[in-house]
Write a structure and sequence with these properties.
Length: 230
């Protein structure tokens, strides 16, 4: 199985010093950066776009950028994110009229593609497109905001998705997003997850004046994950 990746969501970072926040969380041992794009249409919030993605690249960020699109429509903005330096581009099936086409578009633009499943969205959307997907992202909150509580039915869904991915024999990451913290990351891993998004669970922990607070939270997450063998 793929190595575990910790993916801080910059939604909870201090946006006034975003480059520094990303540098610090990567220096503290984060593996990839989760980049939440909201449009005040598909979800009731508005965040950041390709301009900011590109700004992070120009700032010198070389880590994998995992762009989570919560926008509708999807296709128009995909080439812009590819040009801005996105590695993964994931989207919600409800937000695209032609899911297969959008998945292909993402790969044609040189990025890795992924589908995102809201808590009530069935995994059956994967049935005919599994070979066009590099990432399956399960939402463990309803999309739109950081700091919400983990919806526990996501654990069963993770187990189900893990079975589907293993049965496919394909190289597909299984990511969780929403309410992931030190105290539940082990059970999330045990359910089959290999890519762990955490926003408030990383950026809103500890004392702002402590320069090592991200090191300590990421180390504790890894200690918890080490308790689970797969
Ligand atoms: C929610 C976003 C998440 C969010 C998670 O719509 O997709 O990535 O930042 O935040 P936490 O980890 O605080 O639940
Ligand atoms: Zn997200």
């Amino acid at each position: 199985m793929a190595e575990d990746l910790i993916a801080p969501s910059i939604l909870s970072a201090d946006m006034a010093k975003l480059g520094e926040e990303v540098d610090n969380v990567l220096a503290a041992g984060a593996d990839i950066i989760h980049f939440d794009v909201m449009d005040n249409h598909y979800v009731p919030n508005l965040t950041i776009g390709p301009l900011v993605c590109n700004a992070l690249r120009k700032h010198g960020v070389t880590a994998i950028l995992d762009v989570h699109l919560m926008v509708k429509p999807v296709d128009r903005i995909v080439p812009d994110f590819a040009a801005a330096g996105a590695d993964y581009i994931t989207f919600h099936p409800e937000a695209s009229e032609h899911i297969d086409r959008t998945l292909q578009l993402i790969r044609d633009q040189g990025c890795k593609s992924g589908l995102v499943f809201n808590p009530a969205t069935p995994l059956s959307h994967l049935d005919y497109v599994m070979d066009k997907v590099d990432m399956v992202l399960l939402m463990s909150v309803n999309p739109g905001f950081g700091g919400q509580s983990f919806i526990s039915s996501a654990l069963d869904k993770l187990r189900q998705a893990r079975k589907m991915i293993d049965a496919s024999g394909l190289d597909i990451r299984l990511e969780i997003d929403g309410g992931v913290k030190v105290d539940n990351i082990a059970e999330v891993k045990a359910a089959g997850c290999d890519t762990f998004v955490s926003g408030s669970g990383i950026f809103h922990q500890g004392n702002d004046s402590d320069p090592n607070r991200y090191d300590s939270i990421i180390r504790r997450m890894r200690e918890e994950m080490a308790k689970v063998s797969r």
